Amino acid sequence: MFVFIHDNGNLNVLSMTKCGHTAMSYYFGMPIPPDRTLSHWLEYKSPKVVVLRHPAERMHSAISFHGKQFNELIVEYEKTGQCRDFSMIEDLVSCDIREREWRIEEYIFNKHCRPYMHILKNRDFRIIKFEELSQYIPKIAPGGIETNTTNRNIDPFPKNRYFKREDMLKEIELYESLLVNREVITPEEWKELT
Fold first, then answer.
1. With contact defined as beta carbons under 8 Å apart, do 20 and 130 qualify?
2. Residues paired with 15 in a beta bridge
3. Bridge partners for 45 per DSSP
4. If we measure between CA atoms, which residue out of 57, 184, 182, 56 comes closest to residue 121?
5. Which of 52, 60, 164, 178 is the most exposed, having the fewest neighbouring CB atoms within 10 Å of its CB?
């Protein structure tokens, strides 16, 4: 799973996929290192901050964003024989449709919306609520695709092979607990420390 982690000596920031992690990389002027994991965030010593997003919103944003992205790239490849992420798309197009769907599902569910709140629950950190993220950093639409939803009445569990319904329900429960039990860092303090 891709994560954004950055410790500037004042704050140790964690932003998971579909929780503003691309916007964070732009804000701090650095690429998202492919080898960073949650264990790196846990090891860094500066006061910790996490961007929290409702798990169902995060999942549906991942499905919407990557569904659009893969469809556009596949159409572009089939029309022109070229596209960005060429090797990945060329490989997908060569698969039968069922395998293609499974590989896209893995990319979405395993890499972009896997539950992680259980790792955070006993840690000391402050939060930024995702829906208020634009008060902290400039908003961007990765790949020019806007897929952020604030509809919490969406199905919190689309069928997939990577985690169970109980996993998502537990993730939502932990998210709601963290919202109540963690202090929100103010936009003013954030700007001062970053």
1. yes
2. 4
3. none
4. 182
5. 164
Provide the whole-model pTM: 0.82
Are 36 and 3 in contact by the 8 Å Cβ rule? The answer is: yes
Residues 6 or more apart whose Cβ sits within 8 Å of residue 27: 137, 138, 194
Two structure tokens written together for 45: 């010593």
Give the CA distances from residue 137 to residues 27, 102, 129, 134, 169, in Å, rounded to whole numbers and listed in that order. 6, 35, 12, 5, 30
Are 80 and 133 within 8 A, CB to CB?
no
Residue type, 25: S
CB 13 within 8 A of CB 36: no
Q: How far apart are CA 162 and CA 82, in angstroms?
A: 31
Instruction: Give, for all 194 residues of the chain, the pLDDT tens digit.
Output: 678 999 999 999 999 989 998 899 999 998 876 678 888 899 999 999 999 999 988 888 888 777 677 777 777 778 888 777 767 777 777 888 888 888 788 877 877 888 899 999 999 999 999 999 999 999 876 554 455 555 556 666 777 777 788 888 899 999 999 999 999 999 999 999 99
CA distance 175 to 115: 10
Burial environment of residue 130 by CB neighbours within 10 A (0 to 12, 13 to 18, 19 or more): buried
